[in-house]
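Bug #77: duplicate submission created two jobs. Keeping one. Sequence:
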Amino acid sequence: MTRELQALLEKAKKIQPSPEHREEQRRSFVYGNTAFENDRITRKMVTEQAEKLAREQNERRK
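Kept job's structure:
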């Protein structure tokens, strides 16, 4: 491994993703895994379900 690559890896270890970025990555992961099993799954469907779950969680917290 080159020094440059090692330096980049060390820098990457210190980066903290924002909550928005984590949610974006979560949805991407869900889409990738579900679409692999069922090609009728769309990103829009994943987004709609994620937003529905978020609303339901917010309602339970009240």
